[in-house]
Design a protein that fits this description.
- By secondary structure, this protein is α/β, with parallel strands linked by helices.
- The chain is built from 12 helices and 10 strands.
- The chain has a domain of 181 residues: TIM Barrel, CATH 3.20.20.
- The chain has an 8-stranded parallel sheet with strand order 9-8-7-6-5-4-3-10. It has a two-stranded antiparallel sheet with strand order 1-2.
- The structure holds NADP nicotinamide-adenine-dinucleotide phosphate.
- The site of NADP nicotinamide-adenine-dinucleotide phosphate has 30 residues, from strand 10 and helix 11.
């Protein structure tokens, strides 16, 4: 496992980051610990979570993924883990139960620290933008948390390039802590959001890039095929977006090409999807998700080979229509 500097900072993170969005949703507590152990044993030192995970699953109040991670970390060397979480989503009732106001951020941070059973968060990320709160207020709250020793570094997720540029400018102007990384949605069937503007900004400003959903929630495993029933128990079952991906013939042609490349290397389709992402040199670490240790062990095979330049280009070309 390679470890890389995250953006301009001195923080070193593994080239694969373990995402935990399914903990308490499609991954129960026992399997969550198995996945965490497998990741840690493989050299993954970087864990991504969020306070809201997985609030959308029935009976889950939010905070469950953080709680599992907190329990798991009790038996682990904290200093060897780079723990990233996020703030923004609704976590309690009332007008300030969500958002990026000073009031919401400070309480949400303390709540996360309690669930995670730690005295600091290594990377605290704004989950998505809040049009109701001035960016300067948000940055000042984060700056205070850094100076209080509760947060080490700050980052953003789902932010468009112009808002990151504005955040960098405000931090510069007011001498506030600056964001070191961006967490965009990015993969072979979701290219435009990152590649159109954000990629150039991140390269120019040396912002670390930690894309999420490299398999598009499982679509880029090849297990969803046109005309075939959705695999039972998978995240795609009954999911409208997944149905749209499956019904697009361009995506089916892509999966065929990925399968061919996978066979050439003796690899799997999901490994090819992740290898494609890591072949983009603006990407620092890919945030992967797995429900079981077996799935994760498959994904770990993505870092043991490289796509040839021709293979990378063929996948770029097959998906270039997204950038038109
Ligand atoms: N910032 C944000 O707004 C945001 C949004 C989404 C995600 N994230 C982060 O990114 C992480 C990863 O996102 P993601 O879970 O959407 O990633 P993903 O890599 O696109 O999808 C992971 C899913 O693919 C399936 N899968 C994984 N390995 C497989 C294998 N070897 N064979 C077959 N199926 C396999 C599993 O679902 P099934 O078994 O159910 O098919 C798994 O839950 C999250 O945990 C979270 O930390 C952030």
């Amino acid at each position: 496992m390679e470890h890389r500097k995250l953006g301009k900072s001195g923080l070193k993170v593994s080239e694969l980051c373990l995402g935990t969005m399914t903990f308490g949703w499609t991954t129960d507590e026992k399997h969550s610990y198995e996945v965490l152990d497998t990741a840690f044993d493989a050299g993954i030192n970087f864990i991504d979570t969020a306070d809201i995970y997985s609030r959308w699953s029935p009976g889950n109040p939010g905070g469950v993924a953080e709680t599992f991670i907190g329990k798991w970390m009790r038996g682990k060397p904290r200093e060897q883990i780079v723990l990233a979480t996020k703030v923004r989503g609704r976590m309690w009732d009332g007008a300030n139960g969500e958002g990026l106001s000073r009031v919401h951020i400070i309480k949400a941070c303390h709540d996360s620290l309690r669930r995670l059973q730690t005295d600091h968060i290594d990377l605290y990320q704004l989950h998505w933008a809040d049009a109701d709160t001035p960016l300067e207020e948000t940055l000042r709250a984060l700056d205070d948390l850094v100076h209080a020793g509760k947060v080490r570094y700050i980052g953003v997720s789902n932010y468009p390039a112009w808002q990151i540029a504005k955040a960098l400018w405000l931090s510069d102007k007011h001498n506030l802590e600056s964001v070191i990384c961006a967490q965009p949605h990015y993969n072979l069937v979701w290219r435009a959001e990152y590649e159109r503007e954000l990629m150039a900004l991140c390269a120019e400003e040396k912002i670390g890039v930690i894309p999420y959903s490299p398999l598009q929630g499982g679509f880029l495993t090849g297990k969803y095929r046109k005309g075939a029933p959705m695999p039972k128990g998978s995240r795609g079952e009954g999911n409208e977006r997944m149905t749209r991906f499956v019904n697009d013939d361009r995506n089916m042609a892509l999966l065929d090409a990925m399968e061919k490349i996978a066979l050439e290397h003796g690899k799997t389709i999901p490994q090819v999807a992740i290898a494609w992402m890591l072949a983009n040199h603006t990407v620092t670490s890919a945030i992967i998700g797995a429900n079981t240790a077996a799935q994760l062990n498959d994904l770990l095979g993505a870092i043991t080979f490289h796509l040839s330049a021709d293979q990378k280009k063929s996948l770029d070309d097959l998906t270039a229509w997204q950038l038109a």
